[in-house]
Amino acid sequence: MEGGPAFSLSNRLTRFFWRVIWLLLARFxxxxxxxxxxxxxxxxxxSIGRNAQVWPSVRIWLPSNLSxxxxxxxxxxxxxxxxxxISIGNYCVVSQRAYVCASSHDISDPHFQLVLRPIVITxxxxxxxxxxxxxxxxxxxxxxxxxxxxxxxxxxxxxxxxGNPAILVKKRxxxxxxxxxxxxxxxxx
Length: 189
Known about the structure:
Structural class: alpha/beta
Helix content: 10-25%
CATH class: Mainly Beta
Low-confidence stretches: 183-189
Radius of gyration: 18 Å
Number of helices: 3
Mean pLDDT: 92
Largest sheet: 7 strands, mixed
């Protein structure tokens, strides 16, 4: 088959060493050792915010293609398949065994070449257990991918999505955040 490798030798070597390091130094680390795992991810080029919790069984394809905000939890068995860039905002949860995939293949190309399509997960989003977020998706602030949902298109702010393909089923309300927003509104004269 023609078309050649999608990634350079240097990229493939980096990923090999990353997998070995994660397996030996993080995979079997105690769950509360989030600081240690943040250190390893930063060592390989990830941007990781304060208090981010990445569980030892998480699989990350390439840390340098990853940005995680503050107070984020990436749960057990989650997979961040970040051949393309994945950015996760603040106060987000990626639950157990969720799958976030930032690449696909060009089905009109006879060589089926790789297509990188970055994913942006904005602040306060939740990707529930075993949900899938596909290439090129932007999850708007506060949106939710329910358990086993499959998100293939951009979401609306504070929308809750369910099904495959996922559809908007309702809007999420968080009274504490609504009260904070009311406090920040300028007084009308």
